[in-house]
């Protein structure tokens, strides 16, 4: 999976190519600020709450490369609800908050806290479109 970028990094690149370069090259060298740590903790709490709403879900907790294989194995074994399912297509890596099998295929559920601005929601909708595009090409048929 060398050379792939995350949804967040791709969105940063759409805003500013230099920002993408900085995020890819400098992300591991700078520690997270207290504010970033707080936002991350809040997101993890919201994610845990969302997962509690789906009793039979399987958490794909593996690191990036292994997460893609773990997702494929979970789908192949018949799992019908996955948390943090991972896919990669054309160098873009995505993780789905909740991926649930339904009669028509797969339903992708992105979990977000409700205290976000409309600008942030527009960015999240773009991220969701990116995720759906990747899943369209990666999910086993007759999915998306």
Explain the overall architecture:
It is a single chain. The chain has 144 residues and is α/β, with parallel strands linked by helices. It has one domain. It is 50% helix and 20% strand. It has five helices and five strands; from the N terminus they run E-H-H-H-E-H-E-E-E-H. The protein has helices spanning 7-15, 17-26, 34-52, 64-76, 118-138; strands spanning 5-6, 58-59, 81-89, 92-102, 105-109. Strands 1, 2, 3, 4 and 5 form a five-stranded mixed beta sheet that branches. The longest helix is centred in the C-terminal third of the chain and has 21 residues, at 118-138. The protein starts with a strand and ends in a 6-residue tail after the last helix.
Quick rundown:
This protein has 144 residues and is an alpha/beta fold. Helix content is 50%, strand content 20%.
């Amino acid at each position: 999976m060398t050379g792939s970028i995350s949804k967040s990094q791709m969105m940063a690149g759409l805003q500013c190519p230099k920002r993408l370069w900085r995020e890819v090259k400098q992300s591991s060298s700078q520690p997270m600020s207290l504010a970033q740590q707080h936002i991350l903790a809040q997101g993890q709490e919201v994610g845990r709450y969302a997962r509690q709403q789906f009793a039979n879900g399987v958490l794909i907790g593996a690191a990036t490369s292994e997460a893609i294989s773990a997702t494929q194995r979970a789908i192949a074994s018949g799992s019908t609800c996955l948390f943090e399912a991972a896919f990669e297509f054309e160098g873009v890596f995505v993780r789905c908050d909740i991926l649930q099998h339904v009669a028509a295929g797969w339903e992708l559920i992105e979990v977000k806290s409700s205290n976000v601005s409309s600008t942030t929601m527009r960015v999240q909708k773009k991220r969701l479109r990116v995720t759906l595009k990747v899943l369209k090409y990666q999910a086993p048929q007759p999915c998306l």
